[in-house]
Design goal:
Layout (H helix, E strand, L loop, with lengths): L1 E6 L8 H13 L4 E6 L14 E3 L19 E5 L4 H12 L4 E4 L6 H5 L2 H17 L3 E4 L2 H6 L7 E3 L19 E8 L2 H4 L1 H10 L1 H6 L2 E8 L4 H10 L6 E4 L4 H9 L3 E4 L8 H8 L4 E3 L6 H6 L3 E3 L3 H14 L3 H15 L2 H19 L1
Parallel strand pairs: 1-2, 1-4, 2-3, 4-5, 5-6, 6-7, 8-9, 8-11, 9-10, 11-12, 12-13
Length: 361
């Protein structure tokens, strides 16, 4: 099987898509012949030593100029939706009768469609509805993402991203306080940071009494200063701290020195930050919008809350729940090891892609 991944990614370490697409490419290459075409033209550091990595300008914006067999692959996988270069690429592959699938990475959910709504409605009508409709299938990262994208009636299947299991894991928890941590983008609506802060405001007195603190690490359009203003507006400076972004080993160190990872997103395709924390053996507090709510509940990996009132309730009860932290963390790591390692995901993905190709013939 010859497979071509088409994407528009950068070296931005806070971007979920930019982090996971290279890993799909690298790990699927163990099971099939795979190439990657980056429409962004940014040389990707993670892929410097990899073969079959191409850039849109490098091929003169024409996939016919890709080397064989990738100029006529068995299947094309588009990552994301709203990339203008995708339109010319998919028109080319339609003429060649090459099947393609789309991994929207959350961009087809009802909430995501509300972001820049007028622009998306116009773009869908003029360009992207046909691109979406002609896809052989949509690959969603979770069942919840699939349900939240029900306005789009394509055939679809669920196949998530993977994660590497680090040798380091959470072993000890704080004795006299409880430290929560969030690491991710500072995107208030998307990541539900207002939900988290409003919940902290409601639980403020108990947070002080029980020595509960929240550490936020991130970057984004709504930067560190904006988050600090939100904290100040709610008079939460004693219990919530905003920090800049952390990456790689520093990120692991910051996560693991805290006691529990929290993320209250309104919408996610599949939350890499939560997966990384679980792989480290961290207990987690998540919202249903993260798509991990049912996983966390059914596998006893932590707690679930989706509104400020629910966040407040959990924070008020967190001292009692702390006796379960070690069990939650152990179950978190076990779930990742049994279901979401990159090797497992790559093998399952290639098997599914072969089925789609066979069905298209």
């Amino acid at each position: 099987m010859n497979l071509l991944h088409v994407c528009s990614i950068t070296n931005n370490k806070t971007s979920g898509i930019s982090n996971v697409v290279p890993e799909h490419f690298i790990n699927q290459s163990k099971f099939a012949k795979v190439a990657l075409l980056n429409c962004n033209n940014t040389p990707i550091e993670r892929l410097k030593s990899e073969k079959n990595v191409f850039y849109y300008n490098e091929i003169n914006k024409n996939i016919d100029n890709l080397p064989k067999p990738f100029n006529c692959p068995d299947l094309v996988v588009f990552h994301g939706i709203y990339i203008s270069q995708y339109i010319s690429i998919y028109n080319k592959i339609l003429k060649k009768d090459i099947p393609y699938i789309i991994i929207p990475h959350g961009s087809l959910t009802k909430d995501a469609q509300k972001i820049k709504k007028i622009k998306k409605v116009f773009g869908n009508l003029v360009l992207f509805n046909r691109f979406i409709k002609k896809a052989k299938a949509i690959q969603y990262l979770s069942e919840i993402e699939q349900k939240m994208s029900s306005d789009f009636k394509n055939d679809s299947f669920i196949m998530g991203n993977g994660i590497y299991t680090p040798s380091l894991k959470k072993e000890k928890f704080s004795e006299n306080c409880i430290k929560l941590v969030y690491v991710g983008r500072y995107a208030v609506y998307h990541k539900g940071l207002d939900i988290l802060l409003d919940g902290c405001k409601k639980a403020y007195k108990n947070m002080i009494i029980n020595k509960i603190e929240v550490n936020l690490y991130g970057a984004g359009n709504e930067g560190e200063n904006h988050i600090r203003e939100m904290i100040k507006k709610r008079n939460l400076e004693r219990v919530v701290k905003a920090h800049g972004p952390v990456f790689d080993n520093q990120k692991i160190a910051e996560i693991i020195k805290n006691d529990i990872f929290i993320q209250t997103s309104r919408l996610e395709g599949q939350p890499l930050g939560i997966m990384e924390a679980m792989a480290l053996g961290m207990p987690v507090i998540v919202s249903e919008g993260t798509t991990f709510g049912s996983i966390v509940q059914s596998n006893e990996c932590g707690l679930v809350c989706s509104t400020p009132d629910e966040v407040s309730t959990i924070l008020n009860e967190l001292k009692k729940e702390s006796k379960h932290f070690f069990k939650f963390g152990k179950n978190s790591r076990k779930y990742i090891e049994n279901n979401l390692t990159w090797n497992i995901i790559a093998s399952k993905s290639v098997k599914k892609y072969k089925e789609l190709i066979k069905d298209a013939r």
